[in-house]
Description:
Elements: H1 2-8, H2 14-33, H3 37-55, H4 60-64, H5 70-78, H6 80-88, H7 95-108, E1 129-131, E2 146-149, E3 158-161, E4 163-165, H8 175-188, E5 192-193, E6 210-214, H9 230-237, E7 242-248, E8 259-261, H10 268-274, E9 282-284, H11 294-307, E10 313-317, H12 322-335, E11 341-345, H13 356-361, H14 366-379, E12 387-391, H15 397-405, E13 410-413, H16 415-421, H17 443-446, H18 451-475, E14 489-494, E15 497-500, H19 501-504, H20 512-515, H21 522-527
Parallel strand pairs: 4-13, 5-6, 6-7, 7-10, 10-11, 11-12, 12-13
Antiparallel strand pairs: 1-14, 2-3, 8-9, 14-15
Amino acid sequence: MLDRLNALYPVRYTALALCVLITLLSLFTLVAFGIGGVSFLVFGALSLVGFWDLRQIKSSVRRNYPVIGNLRFMLEKIRPEMRQYFLESDTDATPFSRSQRSLVYARAKGETDKRPFGSQLDMSVDGHEWLNHSLQPTTLATHDFRVLIGGDACTQAYHASVFNISAMSFGALSANAIQALNAGAQRGRFAHDTGEGSISAWHRVHHGDLIWEIGSGYFGCRDETGRFSPERFRANAIDPQVKMIEIKLSQGAKPGHGGVLPGPKVTPEIAAARGVLVGADCISPSSHSAFDTPIGLMLFIAQLRELSGGKPIGFKLCIGHPWEWFAIVKAMLVTGVRPDFIVVDGAEGGTGAAPLEFTDHVGAPLQEGLRLVHNTLVGVNLREHIRIGCAGKIVSAFDIVRAMAIGADWCNSARGFMFALGCIQAQSCHTGHCPTGVTTQDPVRQQALVIPDKADRVYHFHQSTLMALQELVQAAGLQHPRDITSHHLVRRVSENEVRLLANLLPLTPPGALLTDLASQHAVFTTYWERASAKRFGLA
C-alpha cells in the first residue's frame, strides 16, 4: 500500500507541494483580507523554482527533489571551501577518493579540472607515489589509445580502448543509467561491460560495444534448470554488438559469494534479460556448474569461442588461493587452450551491496592480484598471448598509469562512470531509493536521469581522462601507455626513503617457472608444484 501511495505521490515532492499549498493559501488571504503578500511572493517563487527543477535536465537530484534539492548547490556556491567539502564529503570515503569524485564531476561536466595553489596531497606521507617525467617529452597525435584483444584461436579480434566501463548489471542499475552508459560508449568507441545480469533491451538501444559477462547463473544463456545452454548462448554471442565474452569466476567486492535478487524485484524487463521467471528469486550460485576443474574451464572457453564465431573469450577473477590460479595456468599449458584475455578484479572494487567482512577482508587487492597474474604468465611464456585487463577503484589517468605499470593492458572503471552519471554516493543502492536515478528500478526516480545529458557526461569523462593520460605519457617521454613500466613509478616508503616500484614489486623473468623455479618468489616455490590442472585444490 505504501509503495502504491508513493508511486501516486512521491514523498520527495513534499517540499514542492507545501510551497504550492502555502502559495495558494497566501493568495486567498491576500485577496480576502489584504494580508500575506510577502509569503505569496516568497512561496510563489519557490513553487516556480520547484516546477523548473522538474523540467530541467542537468541535475537528477533537483528533478527528484524539487526545491529542497537546491540546498546542495547553494552550499557549493557559498565559497570554494564549502563547495569542496560538500562535493567530497561522505561517511566512508578517504580524502583521496573524495578528490577523485570531484575530478570526475568536473571532467564529466566539461568544466576545468585544473587546480590552483598546487597539490593538496602531503607528499611526505608513506605510500605517496609519482611518475618520473622526462626532460624530452614526446608529442602524441591522439589520445585514442587502443589494445588489440584476441589470440591465435580468435578470428574476431577487438581493438579496445584502454579505458572502458566495468561490469554493472541492468537490475543493479536503472534502465536510464544503462542507456546513458551505452550511448556514451557508442559515441566514444569504448566498451560497456554488461555485468552478469546479461544483455537487456536497454543495452541494445544505442548499439554501443558490449562485453557480455557470464556469471554462475548463466543469465541470458541458461536453460529451464539454470544450467548453461549452448543454443541460447550462441543466439546472443553472434550479435555484432557483442565484441567479447567474459566468464565471471569471482567479483572483487565479494569473491566466493553468490547472490540473490528477491522475486519482488524481478520485473518483466529483468526476467527477459536474464531468462528467468517474473517474480521468482533470481539466484547466482557461488560457483559454476558448467565446469569444476581448471581443465574444464579451458574446455568451456574453447566451446564459447567456437559458439561465438571466434570472438575473444576470457575470464574475470579476484585472486584468492594462489594455487587455484596456478592450476588454471597449468591447464592452459596442458590443453593448449588459452583465454584471449583475463580481467583482474581488485578486492577494493565496489558493489551495490555486500557483507562488510567480504568488502573489507576477502580477496587480494588489485596491486597484488594483478602483479601475480602478470608474473605468472610471464613465467610460463604466455604473457604475449594473453591480454590483461583490471578493475578496482580506477578513476583517474594516474590510476590507469599505475595499473599499466604493474601489468595491465587496459583498465575498466565502474565507480568513475557512476560518478559521471551523477552518483553522489548516497549509499542507498540496495534500497531502491537512489536520489539520482542511477541504481533504482522506481520508474519515477529513474526518469530524473535524463539520458542524452548523462550520455554526454559519460563521453566527456572518458575523453577527458584519456586526454589526461596522453599528457602523462608525453611527460614521461613515451609513445603509448603500454610503454609505462614499474621502472617509471616511485613510492615513498618512509620519511627518508623512496624506491622504484620495480624494486618493491617482484619480477619474474620470462620462462622462469618452467626452468628456474627455485630462485623465484616464495609464492611460486611454495605452491606452483603443488597446483594441478586437474583440480582447484592442492595436490
